[in-house]
Amino acid sequence: MNVTAVLRSEWPKVHTVRATLIALACVPLATAGFSALACASHEPGDGAVDFDPVHSSYFGLSFGQLAALCSGVLVVTGEYKGGALRMSLAAVPRRGLFYGCKLAVVGGLGLAVGTATGLVSFLVGQALLGEYGMGLGAPGASRAVLGCGLYLGLIAVLASGVATVLRGPVAALDLLVPLLTFVQPVLGTGSPVFRVTRFLPDAAGQGVLHTTLWAGLVPWPGLAVLAAWTLLLAAAGWRALERRDA
Amino acid sequence: MTVGGRPYRSAPRPLRLAGALLDAGAALGARTARDHLRCLAYSNDIPHRRIAEVLAETGLDAVARRRVGTFSLGMRQRLGIAAALLGDPPVLMLDEPTNGLDPEGIVWIRELLRRLAADGRTVLVSSHLMGEITRTADHLVVLGRGRLLADTPMTAFIAAHSSPRAYLRTTEPERLCDVLASVGFAGAPDGDGRWCLPDVTAARVGELAATGGVPLLELTYAPVSLEEAYLRLTADVTQYAARNPATGG
To answer: For a Cys-Cys bond, which of A210, A226, B31, B229 suits B162, CB 3.0-4.6 Å?
Structure first.
């Protein structure tokens, strides 16, 4: 079996299901939309000391990443609904190839949509910040744009890994949404707990969006920690898929 | 698992080696029938025209753009068969293909199976419907509790696990009994005036009746059905049998 053919079959699996397309479309909409709101409501002098104009453009990422999570989950749980996986594995019996290509499509789409999201969100946000806005040439700006893409791509693959272990969308989102969107924001970055929670996937990966005064991990090592989480959970998914009857 | 001596897992294009109907339309309900087949076709480098061909073959062309979730069980079954045929494989494995099909669909699948076999393909059908199997299968494999109980041609199986039987009506049952008893046969009336004679062919009964001068109103020969032959063979190994409370077994 060749990789190209399997990749070619995994791609229509994504774009022929409306829910997955909607989830992917919501990534830029939610990220740029909520970021625009935050930037538009920025008041001059607002916490002037720790004001990070680049990061202001990514305020909405907490919402946009939910959509990326959903896309990663839906691609996998679509296989577990109605026994579709049995037929998919009849067509591609080498499970490693099947799983690898699926994750590659999820990650590639996440990266592409995420980078576009990063760019749009940056430009919209900075334009709305008016005199405080930065250009793409500003320090950390292009890193944030690309970082946003990598972050969303990794988050989507991570979600697919978890969904493969749990098989159902409800179970997967029940675990992922609180873990990735509640824990760190609720506990905050000021408390001593953050010394631990900064290693959570979202906190670690989002370091790449900051240019000043961030108590968490620095950009690239932070993304590396997220990548390690993704690898771990993708491997857990692989183990589950390899061992279980379809 | 190997198909034709080749391991299925390492086949370069598995769907072209063997097609399988698993449970009815193992497909995601949110996808259209055509898209479902498209995803499968791409993975095995199956030419695009096969999608339209199998949709036409299974009578789904009118609903090809409808989502699978809106399909009835019979339509899903047809979609599953379409998926099995997609790679034009020499081997087909169909699990209970008549499930959920309407009478017209059952006739269709019977003819389809015969035609596929006539093409020179191997068509493996698993079924609990003995009547269907009798009409379509050439060769029979019987499994019970995971053990192979029989692997023979259909006709040989029925002959080996059954005995002939004759039914008749007569105006003079007493004389018939005497005639039969004289050659060691015994019959019994089955309630509505018909007599059932086990282990004897109609030809033999006709002969005996003629020599004994017993008038016959009706004489039929009933070969034992596959169902009966099957039940006899598997009587000892049935896993989930309904027990008769009156007899305790």
So the answer is: B229
